[in-house]
Design goal:
Elements: H1 18-25, E1 30-31, E2 33-39, E3 42-48, E4 51-56, E5 59-66, H2 70-78, E6 80-85, H3 91-97, E7 109-112, E8 115-118, E9 123-135, E10 138-150, E11 158-161, E12 164-167, H4 172-189
Antiparallel strand pairs: 1-11, 2-3, 2-6, 4-5, 5-10, 6-9, 7-8, 9-10, 11-12
Length: 190
């Protein structure tokens, strides 16, 4: 196992740089979401992977937004936001809202409650902003979910790992056998 190699510039108290830290955090696979809101009739959106559920009672979600991102102040101004969980066929949408739009495609929004969400996303939710917490150079926004839509046949999730998009890979034989194995295990436990 290789240790952290750091060039010394911008090192923190532990002797590693922001790049080292970013690369280390990139070893944790995440889903990819679009965070969206609406201000004065105009939709605003950005790609993110720092998203998680926070609570089941009440239904809370968290997104982490860089203070330098345009979305940072827009969430605060709007007081509500949407999260659209992307499937593997929607990488182009992630690229679009990450500043790499395709000239021949434009993502479509649909309203969910009072918030625009990405049409056709695997999961679409609308949340009212309840809390915000400073977290270094980011802010953690906590939203209470008021509307939720789930596509029951979305295909696989779009993943981000090691600085690249990834897909869940499962051989066909495993996809066909796994439900049977899980059912048998459940039967054995009872």
């Amino acid at each position: 196992m290789a240790g952290i190699q750091s060039g010394g510039e911008g090192q923190g108290p532990g002797g590693f740089s922001q790049r080292d830290f970013r690369d280390a955090m990139g070893q944790f696979a995440t889903g990819v979401v679009i965070v969206s809101t609406e201000i004065e009739g105009e939709a605003h959106a950005m790609t993110a992977n720092a998203f998680m559920s926070g609570s089941l009672d009440p239904f809370l979600v968290l997104v982490s937004i860089a203070r330098t991102a345009r979305m940072h102040d827009r969430l605060r101004t709007a007081g509500h936001f949407g999260v659209s969980v992307l499937s593997q066929s929607q990488q182009w949408i992630s690229n679009h809202f990450a500043g790499r739009p395709s000239p021949d495609r434009r993502p479509a929004f649909e309203p969910l409650s009072r918030t625009p969400v990405v049409a056709g996303a695997a999961v679409r939710l609308s949340a009212d902003l309840r809390h915000e917490y400073a977290c270094g150079d980011h802010t953690l926004y906590v939203g209470e979910v008021w509307a939720l839509q789930v596509d029951r046949e979305p295909g696989g999730p779009l993943l981000y790992y090691g600085g690249r998009y990834r897909q869940v890979a499962m051989p066909d034989w495993m996809a066909e056998t796994m439900p049977q194995i899980l059912w048998q295990e459940n039967e054995l436990r009872y």
